[in-house]
Amino acid sequence: MAGINVPQYEIFKIGTDKLKYSKWNLNIDKKEAFKYQESVSLFEGQQFRIMAKKIMKKAKWKCDFSKLFMQVVIDQKTDFARATNRKGVTVNGINYRRFVGTTGGLKNNTLLFCNSEYIDKLNELCECRRNKEVPLVPAKYEAYKALTCSASQPICEPHGILVVKDCITQYEDDVISLDSGVGDGEPIREKKHKVMENTVSDGFNLCTIGYMQRVAESLGLDYTPAGVCLRNAWLKGMLYPFPIIEFIEKYNGGNYFIKDIWGNVQDIRECEMILTESSLKLWSAYESIDEYIAAYRECGYEFAVTKISPRILDEERELNYQYLQSYEFTDDDIKELCNPTIQHLKDAMCGDYESTIKFLGINENTDVNSWQRALYTSQYMLGDPYIIDSTHRYIKKKINDAKIGKLIVNGNYQIASGDPFALMQSICGLEITGLLKADQCYSKFWIDKSVDSVVIFRSPMTSHNNIRKCNVISNEECLYWYQYMDTIMIINAWDSFCVAENGCDWDGDLLYSTNNKVLLRCFRKLLAIECVQRKANKIIINEKEVKKTNKNGMGNQVGQITNRVTSMIEVLSRFKEGSNEYNDLLYRIECGQLHQQDELDKIKGIIAKPMAKYWYNLGACKDNHYLQSICAYRKPYFMIYIYDEIKRKYKNYIKESEIKCAALYDCSIQDLYSKKDNLTDEQKDFLFWYEYKMPVGIGACAMNKICWYVESQLDGYKSQLHHDSTFDYNRLKVKRRCTEEHRKALHDLEQEYRECIKEYKANRSSDKEQSNNNRKYLCEKFRQAAIELCPNDEERMNIILDITYGYKGNRQFCWDCIGDLLIKRLEEMENENVYTE
Prior knowledge:
A hairpin with a 5-residue loop joins strand 15 (257-259) and strand 16. It contains 32 helices and 26 strands. By secondary structure, the protein is α+β, with helices and mostly antiparallel strands. Helix 7 packs across helix 21 and helix 22 packs antiparallel against helix 23 (580-601).
């Protein structure tokens, strides 16, 4: 996705363990907080803009947001009540109280707090003058309020807004219905033929072509995006350009007067934007669009975007194990699927410059502050020991990635949308047909490649029921009416796609699609799984109920549930299709989707039954041998390349077992397997218990087979890229006098950098996006600190090169702090042809 361009603001992020220890009154300086990752950098969202504009009444850059907001991590659930009560928490003499729990924050037990002096006013503004007598589900209200905190870039105001009801279609289909039921029993599974309903416009909106062109100017883009993800008060959804007036004139007899959701008639020629009820969450809390517009303007809100569709889509993207694990591959299928990635990795190990550049995927657009860009700039850098070691690490990482299913195929992620043509028909009161039929999709990317069909995936997924194969439609009508949505994947309105893709909607969800021959050939169309959902009660919102949803939403277990299903798929591979064990495991795998959705519903205050322990915990099976035989109590073998601790246990177990086997039978375990038909009873028992106690599952499931094949092809394969003793970092330096004062200051900074990196690695966030943001934040802090300590670029470059390359300091410190200067220097040297002997 194309990135938005917004500033970041530094605030404290403190855990309740530390706050408790200080009796909820902590003093901490920014330097200490930074070192121990107790300060974070948040991208600008509406909450920062409202605070600066409406409360502080000054420019954002003049506000010290570390004194206005902070994050509190609830280390123990028992701390929640004290941390969120009226007393709040005090840091550096400033008292803070709970403001909101965002969806991402709650997953990591983190709440956003606000300075107590301003929180009441901020809450009042965030309410955006809604009618507070309209009952709401507390968890949904909190999620809508949390939209205020999404990183977003302001855009231009539309001239006129029309709010309409969602487009709804009905169709008949067979589905698997799963219901948690009541009592302690397992979920109830039924196969049903029923009338299903699609909210075709669930989360997307339309605008004129002219407005999207103005949005592009607001964002500083040199192209008109196919879509952007909108934010405003109580608003979240994708916005797509569509020839609205042309549609009205061709299909609605030139009748421009459309009734909006409040029953007011509007001239659509005076509206640049059409919003749907599923996107404007609290439309019912306002009397008209005019009241809503006046309210958001008065309260400091504005239209902004969180996501921008890219100009060009990727040609290739890696798969992941969730997409592959439910397939039934033959050995030939696996070879065909894996070989392009294996060959790509073998080519990377040739050791020559061109192969290394191609493998690393670096070009003139690569980050200008990185060693990769330096290597692209100058072949001389292929002799740098640090770059050689970094390339070796990267190759090793990519080999391990291949073992966990990160295989290169033609395909990419595209933002998903429902059918805008069908929405326009609904708006005009016409018969809803759309331009796409069941099992069809539109993707200009695939049309341009003359691809007829693709398989489509959406994360998180658990079973083959979550995969869909769609026919790519290319006809004159689609090409014309969808012409401005050229990087968007449009899905038809007439089948169970959204149900199958685990509750997919159109508010910015990404779909992965590929035309890979193996994945198309091995696809099996299974019934969509419909999970019966309990609805939470709507109430008049109050602080007590909202806080309760925050607490319920903490410690999300969706990842654990997904991993348990992956383990079940490994166990499934040990049994014959059609056996009782096989059928029971298939049922449990299907139920994984229900348990995922139940876990997400916890935040709504809905009490759902957890997954039965005997499905994944061997102790809970007690002495029941049947339950033990289908219990998914260990992770599959391929996950040793994901979890270091499991890999360590596995290696130790194999080593100890081999020693034991050699002592008892004077042979290896492999020798025992090779003569399996002629073993003694004792030897058979040895192999039985060897497999039973194995810390990982070694069943021949798709992912284990992929892992073993990649191991067989790449383990022991050596890179030809070796250290070159001719590399001399002094060639990168310039003639410039360096002071001892600056040398000492930058040396001390490098030592501080080492300590911070150590803390960063020890406390790395499990949230990949947050971890990346923390890393970028750390780099920028040290780069700026280095500039302040030694303002002259040439002097700073010389000193840091000496510290890191001359005295074996941390060379990543070098690239983080002066990477841009080194690349500039390399460009100069290339032009001067410095390397000629």
